[in-house]
Amino acid sequence: MSTQPTHDKLPIRMLHDRVLVRTDTSQGERRSSGGIVIPATAAVGRRLDWAEVVAVGQSVRTVEPGDRVLYDPEDRAEVEVRGVAYVLMRERDLHAVASERLEGADDATGLYL
């Protein structure tokens, strides 16, 4: 009889206003809109990153799983679940939401990022 814990197979539920996101792992060189290659070592100011929402707590009102969100990578708590790295944050730490479900919303700014 095995007494090994099976916590890696248990479902995970986010609590309160927490949001779990999967970041874009391509932290290498980038390309500008004009086609100029920007190396990963180039010094830039405070740069925000995009991530995909994987799970949300029951108090989260503005994002849903599958949305893309803009966040500050300096303010993050990383966690690894089943070998995949995620970032855990509060809903108030998100700067923007990008989702097809927001098209035609009355409070949309009309900006396309």
Overall radius of gyration: 17 Å
SS strand fraction: 25-35%
Biggest sheet descriptor: 6 strands, antiparallel
Shape: globular
Average of pLDDT: 76
| Low-pLDDT residue intervals, each spanning 5 or more residues | 1-7
Structural class: mainly beta
SS element count, helices:
0
The residue fraction in helices comes out at under 10%
Number of domains: 1
CATH architecture: Roll
Straight-line N-to-C gap? 55 Å
Secondary-structure element string: EEEEEEEE
Strand order of the largest sheet: 6-7-1-4-5-8
Give the number of DSSP strands.
8
CATH class value: Mainly Beta
GO molecular function, one term: protein-folding chaperone binding
Keywords: Chaperone
Organism: Streptomyces aidingensis
InterPro entries: Chaperonin_GroES, Chaperonin_GroES_sf, GroES-like_sf
